[in-house]
Amino acid sequence: MSVHKEIKKVTTNVLQEMKRRGEKIAMLTAYDYTMAKIIDSAGIDVILVGDSASNVMAGHETTLPITLDQMIYHAGSVIRAINRPLVIVDLPFGSYQANSKEALNSAIRIMKESGAHGVKLEGGREIKESIERILTAGIPVMGHLGLTPQSIYKFGTYTVRAKEEDEADRLLEDAKLLEQYGCFALVVEKIPATLATKVSQSIQIPVIGIGAGAGTDGQVLVTHDMLGMTHEFSPRFLRRYLNLYESMGNAFKQYIADVKSKDFPSDKEQY
Ligand code: KIV
Known about the structure:
By secondary structure, this protein is an alpha/beta fold. Helix content is about 45%, strand content about 15%. The chain contains twelve helices and eight strands. An eight-stranded parallel barrel has the order 1-2-3-4-5-6-7-8, surrounded by seven helices. β6, α10 (about 195-200) and β7 form a beta-alpha-beta unit. The site of 3-methyl-2-oxobutanoic acid has 11 residues, from β6. 3-methyl-2-oxobutanoic acid (KIV) binds near residues 51, 90, 187, 210 and 220.
């Protein structure tokens, strides 16, 4: 029997057991109560309250503007909805880069004020002290390597990362270091599939990919993208399971038409 079916509450240990048994981990983003409730009832393993909320919820061009208070608001809404999945929250840009004390304080605020189960930070060896300090408080940490959107102005583009040997070697070393520091899992974003497979086979902790091929221990997508609510963003790795942009648009048009034509509300839709 799969770990997925047996488990009432997903923990970091459960995810590691899934990797050992070769059972793939399914992760999706959520930022609000209603969406998180639907995702939980579908049986997801992990919900990421990603700083992609900055793009999909607030309409910013990058993930940089979202604040710690805003992340806590989103995380609290998700936590109130869920029963089974592990809920991990991104530490937003500017809430952990200055020093490890700031990182710990930000992680503690997320855990205390939202009730989340762990945090995710972008980066490798350069955030060693922050990871270790957060772990001393008993807070699980997920790493994030490859395309790290909080550093978009350093890289300049959202193209595939670690295509060159030097960068690929460094990424693999960073993945091993994140495991050594104590991260319970790792996201790899937009890197070649062969490299992502090698990373997953080289470390014991689960590696969850986005745009990183089929060889990782799990997959994550931004929910609004996989539902087809966002329609301008079409990277090769994205599989759209619905075209909600179109069907929601049609529903809204129909409602407007019904109001204008006085079809809505009918006699049965009033008191
Ligand atoms: O913020 C986010 O949604 C993420 C995922 C793309 C992994 O970090």
